[in-house]
Amino acid sequence: MPSPKIDVRTAAAGTPDFITFFIKGSALPAGVPPEEFDGSPGSLVLLRDKNQRTLIVGLGEKEKIEPDSLRRAAGTAIKHLLKLGSTEAALDLVPFPDHVAPAVEGALLASYKFEGFGKDPSKNKRGVLAKLQVLVTEHELPRARTQAREAEIGVAITNAVRDIGNLPGNMLTPAILAEKAEEMALARGLTVKVWTERHLKRDGFGGILAVGQGSVHPPRLIVLEYFGGPKAKRETPIALIGKAVTFDTGGISIKGGAQMDEMKFDKMGGLAVLGIMLAAAELKLPLNLVGVIPSAENMPGPDAYRPGDIITTRDGKTIEVLNTDAEGRIILADAIAHVRLTYKPSAILEYSTLTGAVIMALGFRRAGLFTTEEKLRDALVAAGKTTGELVWPMPLDDEYKEGIKSEIATAKNIGGREGSACISASFVKLWAEDTPFVHIDIAGTAWTTKPPAHLEAGATGFGVRLTLAALRVGLPV
Ligand code: BES
Ligand code: ZN
Ligand code: ZN
Question: What spatial distance separates the first Cα and last Cα of the chain, rounded to whole Å?
Fold first, then answer.
């Protein structure tokens, strides 16, 4: 889907549909019946002039307004206008010059729609947003243009990642993911290396191979490099690692049938990493980054790995498999070992739909942030607040390692039920050794079935905007 053209200016050109934001408690504009509109978040009222429509959208009370209020209000407004068939809108941001980025993000995130397959587009009454005008004062123009451009790149890539995320398992195998990642990365000047089965075997990626061996669609390891920072620091880039299980049946420890289709989203950690790398390159961030995406399909085919198997990972550590549905941590172990041995990164940030347990703990609004690095934690929590992609600190103390002690291997791949999100995190951390490590469990946030105002059901692209915001300010590594 093409992104709308963005035009930052001081006055509207032509007759776009107007969107104005309204603070609850301020004087209602003329013609608005007070019983119909009170300015609470998500409330809307449409005024029609001869050839001009104005949509007023509520932000709630002044004291409670934060970036996400504008993001959601803009999303609500755009969705409403698209339903009316609108193709061009203008956001009146004159009163909100500090919130240009979230408002533009909300509008662009809300204009995304997964096209689906075999549907007749002429029967689709929803408009396609072709142009978005952003109105600010003359004085604010330069800053607003920068904010709008950064928002536009972040969202265009988030939406591209959502599009791949929404593809089902039969259309997106590890090999297809690697091809798409390669094409998108090469177009932006990144270096790409893809390991096929033969090279995974040669280099000792026992974890990725084991998880992938029950599927006829072989696994891949995708490595992306972006060196936009100082030469000396090429030696110690920041590493981003993302789980990309293109479909998780659970393998021999097979899952129940309910909502198993949602396990097509088990690749969203890897897609977050792809998105961050692409956007960093497009924004020319002055940083050195390496992105690593281990990808496999977890199937119970004839050669599937089994409970009881012992696997040797890339760095020689071993895993006693006690449940083949705890597969994410196994492919991540290989990827983390590889990045540590090859790049000696200054920090590792890892994204995965790792556990159902994190959903039990935090629900669907916040991702679990597991790290012992306080500065990294604070930076990511702050980035969460500006982007609306919230993360919540969870513990990663050594006590959780007790849960994965094995008599016959470096670790077993499951612990008990209690504290299971933390135990899982401590498993993955073992492979990072002394490298500063952050695990973000996005199982609850990577896709949505009850979308908030600025999103639609399906993949959310969670993690892309969060991490870009943190990288832009500078991660304390
Ligand atoms: N991909 C799942 C985790 C998941 C579950 C994400 C539900 C989103 C929604 C992961 O591979 C998994 O199956 N984890 C198991 C681990 C268990 C076997 C220790 C889980 O969470 O149940
Ligand atoms: Zn699983
Ligand atoms: Zn999984």
Answer: 37
